[in-house]
Amino acid sequence: MAERMLQFTKVSRSMPDKRPAPVRAADFDEIYADFSPEAAHAQASRCSQCGVPFCQQGCPLQNNIPDWLKLAAEDRLEEAWRVSSATNNMPEICGRICPQDRLCEGICTIEQSGHGTVTIGSIEKYITDTAWAEGWVQPIKPPRERTQSAGIIGAGPGGLAAAEQLRRKGYQVTVYDAYDRGGGLLMYGIPGFKLEKDVVERRIAHLEASGITFKFNTRVGKDVKLAALRVEHDTLLIATGVYAAKDLKCPGSGSDGVLAALDYLTASNRKGLGDEVPGFDSGDLNAEGKRVVVIGGGDTAMDCVRTAIRQGAKSVTCLYRRDRANMPGSQREVQNAEEEGVVFEWLANPEAILDTKAGKVKAVRASRMKLGEPDASGRQSPMKTGETFDVKADLVIKALGFDPEDLPQLFDEPALTVNRWGAVRVDYATMQTSLPGVYAAGDIVRGASLVVWAIKDGRDAAEAMHKAMKAMASDRVAAE
Ligand SMILES: Cc1cc2nc3c(=O)[nH]c(=O)nc-3n(C[C@H](O)[C@H](O)[C@H](O)COP(=O)(O)OP(=O)(O)OC[C@H]3O[C@@H](n4cnc5c(N)ncnc54)[C@H](O)[C@@H]3O)c2cc1C
Ligand code: SF4
After folding, report:
1. Which pTM does this prediction carry?
2. Confidence of residue 480 (pLDDT cuts 50, 70, 90)
3. Which ligand does the CA of 455 lie closest to?
4. C-beta of residue 164 within 8 angstroms of C-beta of residue 89
5. How far apart are the first and last CA of the chain?
6. Could you read off the pLDDT of 413-465 as tens digits, one per residue?
7. Would you say the CB of residue 152 lies under 6 angstroms from ligand 1?
8. Is the CB of 162 within 6 Å of ligand 1?
9. How many Å lie between the centroid of ligand 1 and the Cα of residue 195?
10. Nearest alpha carbon, ligand 2 atom 1
11. What is the 3-state secondary structure (H, E, C) of 114-162?
12. Other CB atoms closer than 10 Å to residue 436's CB: what's the count?
């Protein structure tokens, strides 16, 4: 079958079809169509099957990418799915939303040789979407049930990955989440045009059918104490993400019509899910007919600008203090946003929010910046040029990133150690926190990061929790 591979000199790189901008900007559906089987096989056959697969090193989960590409090229999709899902709890989600240009695809060997990377993410999505469609993804049946239990706080990708891994080993797993649905930012942060919500709901339903108990609308620290959960479960995982929005420090930032990004995105996602959202219906959290200014240059800012376009904003402008090459968000997303009509003001730093006498936002005053010399980290700092300009606005969205909440206080556990940014400290060898039997994973450990890293942490933590619970069980047997 070797002749099926190494086709990169004959087959050009091609992504699944992207819906035209005017069509996709009218709804919240994903923007890429599915690969046809022929296209997926052809694209997978471009892999050069490197002896040392750099793509695997670029993937935080160390996915066996060349193996599943070869199986996909040979149309052995069930085997491809088994290999792919052995290292990843949600390949169809990573295939959709990993910033592949910075991970696996960024260091693909044929990309380095100028042939254009293998479209790893799209093929990963294709394989697992096929697995769901064919009914290969079945509820987990552990080889044996164990009586020990694990409590998972947070139903985002970190918590869900850990829950699945522990259930596979037969533990009794309960997931607690403050929200009314699972998925964390997969459900309420990331918009449908990047990740349709039924893809997330399907995963949660699969875990429920596998015997995992979900307790929604349960905020640990308020509705139930961490101390009580430590008594109830043999081990605990904290996977609560980071939700304290960084604020805009300039005059007028509290004006009427200035919103936090996650409030805005959550309202939009909830509306799409059919929930009652009074703040959206009143117009406060809806960009329709408004001149919208989004402040920030990360993935959250890109999600806000593209959501505003879909809500029918009159204009959408993104202000970012560095230039395009130095923005933290994915270049692919900037291109998508530009195609959909977003205007980018690079090298623009907000100085003040201007408002009307009634306190309603009317414009953002920005300083024109230039990039100075690189600092110790190698990053060029933005500096003011002295020039300012105003952008008219009816709605301003602050997308400046997130910090951890004060968990020791929230959980009433002063012995839970955090670093100077408030992220939970763990021993990376075991993902254990300063509290015995309590582990942590995902954004609450790393600070705002990526889905694939949350999954990796969740898997590592689950492995350590398993080892700890096994040791506890043998101690109990020895004591009897
Ligand atoms: C707008 C936006 C877009 C993004 N886009 C991408 C992208 O395209 N690709 C990518 O890889 N990453 C993206 N990210 C980052 C990614 O979503 C996160 O890195 C990832 O979700 C972190 O997973 P987690 O499990 O640690 O936390 P989360 O997904 O935040 O889940 C944490 C869960 O814990 C629950 N929780 C919090 N506190 C408590 C409590 N006290 N008690 C009970 N439950 C609690 C929350 O309700 C939530 O469900 C994006 C983030 C944002 C905000
Ligand atoms: S999980 Fe993400 S980084 Fe890893 S192979 Fe898939 S798309 Fe690439």
Report:
1. 0.96
2. confident
3. 1
4. yes
5. 57
6. 999 999 999 999 999 999 999 999 999 999 999 999 999 999 999 999 999 99
7. no
8. no
9. 14
10. 94
11. CCCCCCHHHHHHHHHHHHHHHCCCCCCCCCCCCCCEEEEECCCHHHHHH
12. 10
